[in-house]
Specification:
This protein has 338 residues and is α+β, with helices and mostly antiparallel strands. Helices cover 23% and strands 43% of the residues. Strand 2 and strand 3 form a beta hairpin.
């Protein structure tokens, strides 16, 4: 009997020792986290013992009061931003005096300056002073209307660099089987005013029906906003006659290859010129609408319609010669460049 009692006491003691050790370890952790403060340890122990902790209506009176209650702590982000705001701007130093004391081209200090100057000239010539040219046939067409067939052309060519070019222009018209009605050739020097506009100065020679004239020409050619191509020129003939011409056109791309081009041309005169059949003011207006198919950029056939009408005394001069004041023609033609 004594042996049975001793065995039961030993079993109870073995079970109690780990529980006591676990309780002591828990108390040690609590005190360690709270800085070995007995009140903090008691607070945590009280929270663990209260089954209603955290529920509304059941306050845990064992938790100590918060010493910072009612105080608004500043946000670390705002504090950092305020700290940055008061920092002074970094100083900006001027280039040292020796920065501009060296040669314009550093390579001249290593290689022969004369050879380097020649190399720079070659680079400018190859990359910035390229001389090239182009021939552009804007219109080469046949017109049909009012009982007869007519032909017309308008072409230009230029040769030169980016700033200065030699420019040639030619246009004219007539009827098949009849003498040439009108033609002109212009030789111009073109100077770029900016990337969009060119000043053109030169001479113009007229040939065809009526007296020939030689004109001095002064004009401007370029691209207006929204990609309107503008060509305006004032002419002074060898007989003192002053005339002007303004041409406007626009390429409306309908598809990648199909392009619609409206165009208008206005002719003006400073005074009546009966010998040329031209009246003062706005003498005539031409309007055209052409639809071209660009097979390749250099080759594009087109169809369209073209109307011309004389105005004022110019119309009266035409009627006196037995001609109509205006005409409308359907046209078929070709636009090309190379």
């Amino acid at each position: 009997m004594k042996r049975i009692v001793a065995l039961l006491l030993a079993t109870a003691a073995a079970t109690a020792v780990p529980a006591l050790a676990q309780h002591d370890h828990h108390d040690h952790d609590v005190m360690h986290r709270e800085g070995s403060d007995p009140r903090a340890a008691a607070s945590e122990a009280g929270q663990a013992a209260d089954p209603h902790a955290g529920h509304s209506g059941h306050e845990n009176t064992s938790q100590p009061a918060d010493l910072h209650a009612g105080q608004v702590m500043p946000s670390p982000r705002l504090t950092h931003a305020a700290h940055r705001a008061v920092l002074p701007d970094p100083p900006i130093a001027q280039p040292p005096p020796g920065a501009f004391s060296g040669p314009t081209h550093a390579a001249d200090t290593v290689f022969d300056p004369a050879e380097m100057a020649q190399a720079r000239l070659v680079i400018r010539r190859e990359h910035g002073a390229i001389v090239t040219g182009a021939v552009i046939i804007d219109r080469l067409e046949a017109g049909f209307g009012q009982g007869h067939e007519a032909y017309a052309w308008k072409a230009q060519a230029w040769y030169g660099g980016d700033i200065d070019r030699l420019w040639f222009k030619s246009d004219g018209e007539g009827s098949f089987g009849e003498p040439l009605e009108r033609a002109e050739v212009q030789a111009l020097w073109s100077h770029a005013l900016d990337p969009w506009w060119n000043l053109q100065v030169g001479v113009r020679q007229d040939v065809g029906v009526g007296p020939d004239r030689t004109h001095a020409a002064l004009g401007i050619h370029g691209l207006a906003p929204y990609w309107f191509e503008v060509d305006g020129t004032v002419f002074l003939s060898n007989r003192g006659e002053v005339t002007g011409r303004v041409e406007l056109s626009y390429d409306q791309r309908l598809t990648r290859k199909l392009i619609l081009q409206p165009e208008i041309e206005l002719d003006l005169a400073a005074r009546d010129m009966p010998a040329l059949g031209i009246g003062a003011g706005l003498s005539s207006a031409k309007a055209g609408l052409r639809l071209r198919y660009q097979i390749v950029p250099e080759f594009a056939p087109y169809i369209g319609v073209r109307h011309e009408h004389a105005i004022g005394d110019t119309a009266a001069y035409r009627r006196a010669r037995g001609e109509a004041a205006g005409s409308t023609r359907f046209v078929i033609g070709l636009r090309a460049w190379f």
